[in-house]
Batch of 3 targets.
Target 1
Amino acid sequence: MSSTIDLIVFDLDGTLVDSLPDLANAANHALHRLGLPAQPLTAHKKMIGAGEKNYVRRFLGPDFQHLYDQALKLYLEHYSGHLGDQSQVYPGVKETLARLAPMNMAVLSNKREDLSRQVVEVMGLGNFFMMVRGGNSYGALKPSPEGLSALIRELGGTPARTLMVGDKPEDVLSGRGAGTRTAALTNGYGDPEAIAAARPDHLFSDFTQVAGLVAG
């Protein structure tokens, strides 16, 4: 496939970086400050992935939506100051990106762009990517294809020669809607059955397998 792919676009959380501990800590900080009980990592894992606003609404729950504005402020203040405390790059990611380095590569997250950029830099991944874009960059969140399509245009790419890599059905659906190839990882935050049901072109259990599509 190496001759047919010019651009690889990666999701961030759950794909390149295990950021769950810092996301959950920020959420639980907000909950604590608001007098609400903290939630376990297993619960937070199911709630993340649709941008900060949706995450805050989810961890507040239906009975406490009236606290949304306060919760969002508390969450963002804490997360922006602690987004590198416990987050880790997944095993094999740096080595695989280095192997793919001749390729044009970018990040498209549903996380806000400024926070996405900070995570990429703090995790030591900045030199690999031509562009880092977030959920507020184009006015659309994945699974909408609009952000991915706009990013491809910004980089002068073509959808048919682009590979979208992520860990959730939203990444697969975004790629399919934009007309790209898709690869999904089952070791991130998405439910493996739901990911398979989204019918990605390639389904992997390990990030290093991505390199086999375009290198070697």
Target 2
Amino acid sequence: MTNEQKTFIEKVGTLAAADVKKSGVLPSLTIAQAILESAWGKSALTKKGNALFGIKAGSSWKGARLNCKTFEYYSGKRTDIVDAFRAYGSWEESVADHGAFLKGLSRYKAVTGERDYKKACRAIKAAGYATAPEYAQVLIGLIERYDLTKFDGVSVPAQAKPAVTADTYTVRPGDSFCKIARTVMGNESYAQALAEANGLKLNSVIHPGDVLKIPKK
């Protein structure tokens, strides 16, 4: 973990730990979503609109909004689109609205108040928060990789964490460059760099047990 990543986690974690008292949303889930959806705070939406989460600005949203490029999965196929998202004056406002958004919709009832991070991740995916097929698994991977449950008041057992040692990663069944990039590096956009760092192409086949070099971001 870089110092920049540590600072991001601590900042969002502090906000999420305070928000759970109002929303009931598990802090580890909130932090993992922020990492994934804001690309560690580096996305255009986050830089321009302090939005840590990709919450769409529908007709009921009366606050600021920004049009940004994004993608959705339709019938399992990724489609690039431009959509309007909620924007804020600060990260604190973003975290607070994220909690209020989930608490305010009945379909997320299984998410708010859930104390098991794996169940919470699966519940938010099942409720339709995101269309990405592996959204829940990616969130779980981030929580375990960065021990985010410490903000929930518990700690993930060491054996549950991804097989990452220093700057290498041991491939597990079902892995792909995109999946590893999302889980280990925090964003799918690093998949190409990951493949090239190992002298491979993005469509190259990798096998369980292979040890990959993790490039610096």
Target 3
Amino acid sequence: MAALEGSSGHKKVINYIRALADTKEFKDFITRMREKYEIPAGGLKDEQQTVPPPEWVQKHSYDEYRKLASEASKFAQTYHLHHLDGEETIVHYIFYDELVFYSNHNAFNLCIVSDIPMEKDEPFSKITQEDDDRLFPIAIRVSPYATLRDILDFVKRVYKHEIVFLQNNYKEKGVRLGKFKERKGKIRERNDFIYSHRDLPRKQIVPLVHERFGKDNILDVGHIGKIISLEKKRRKEL
């Protein structure tokens, strides 16, 4: 799992979800869910962050939790996320107002590893199989006798001629999954801070940034404006 979490595909999916969390559509969905399921507007405050929260389940019911999770799953699928990944992350955010990415095998990636004969003998749930087919429609079958060199050599040779051709057949226009570059934590925090003050005059934002982030973040008015423009573009509907 650690190896998969360090892959470029994993990073792209994580960046995509972070960008999704900044959109109006996501924030509106979270607000509606909290109102509907009687969760505080800013989420629950609990260091353990257990999902589902025991106290909330006692007040409502586990069936009510499954309804909430089902809605989160459908929302995730709308944005081309696997229901297993999206449901857990979005449900956690609904309850605790924090993005958490669970460490599961094959989670949050642009590729998966499948044991095809095993899955035929012991198939996953219908919704999981459908999401696997929808999000990972192209497969490369690997012989148990192939070496790493054999596999990499094969992919390099056929990628442009066969794989890209098949990918283009399945791509949907306007989907931005895989398009978001990784932003360092401090830069992301600084840019989010600037965007949250976008309604202020640019000259007023400059000293606020300097005060909050120190002398290494001395930005001029033009730079502030550019960051706001880029953040607006990044937050458009995915």
